């Protein structure tokens, strides 16, 4: 895994931003499971990284679409990983049930946003969620 992906995995927004400024091609990095930076951020529940990457949408919409449409080696999309994260054994690093619910709601909103974005690209629904 590259330093860029490790920073995304651990939620280090400053490092992700700095690497993107100095090495813009890092956005195309993938790990051994063919996960790009957005997939890694969603898989490891890093909403600040996701929000940082969303800023790309305005300046480079094609790049943003490529990040969203990417699939890992198991053909999981961003939606699959976000849904898996909700029911998985990786809780948010926060205290209290109310805060846990807030973050779960935030991930639901992320899923809803990506689902609507994929629908706007006119993809057949069987390509969006097959599991």
Task: Walk me through what this model shows.
With 131 residues, this protein is mainly α. It has a single domain, classed as Alpha Horseshoe (Serine Threonine Protein Phosphatase 5, Tetratricopeptide repeat), CATH 1.25.40. 64% of the residues lie in helices and 0% in strands. The protein has 9 helices and no strands. The radius of gyration is 14 Å and the shape is globular. The relative contact order is 0.12.
Q: What is the H-and-E element order?
A: HHHHHHHHH
Strand fraction: under 5%
Tell me the number of strands.
0
Distance between the termini: 27 Å
Main beta sheet: none
CATH topology: Serine Threonine Protein Phosphatase 5, Tetratricopeptide repeat
**Given the structure, what is the number of helices?**
9
Mean pLDDT: 81
Number of domains: 1
- Find the CATH superfamily: Ankyrin repeat-containing domain
Q: Can you tell me the overall shape?
A: globular
What would you say the CATH architecture is?
Alpha Horseshoe
Kindly summarize this structure in a few lines.
By secondary structure, the protein is mainly alpha-helical.
Name its key features.
9 helices; single chain; Serine Threonine Protein Phosphatase 5, Tetratricopeptide repeat; mainly alpha; 131 residues
């Amino acid at each position: 895994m590259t330093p860029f992906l490790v920073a995304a995995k651990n939620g280090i927004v400053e490092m992700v931003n700095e690497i993107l400024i100095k090495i813009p091609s890092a956005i195309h990095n993938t790990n051994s499971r063919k996960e790009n930076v957005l997939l890694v951020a969603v898989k490891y529940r890093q909403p600040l990284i996701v929000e940082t990457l969303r800023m790309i949408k305005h300046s480079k919409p094609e790049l943003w679409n490529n990040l969203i449409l990417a699939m890992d080696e198991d053909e999981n999309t961003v939606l699959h990983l976000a849904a898996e994260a909700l029911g998985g054994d990786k809780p948010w690093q926060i205290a209290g049930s109310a805060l846990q619910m807030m973050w779960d709601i935030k991930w639901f909103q992320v899923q809803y946003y990506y689902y609507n974005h994929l629908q706007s690209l006119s993809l057949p629904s069987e390509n969006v969620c097959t599991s």
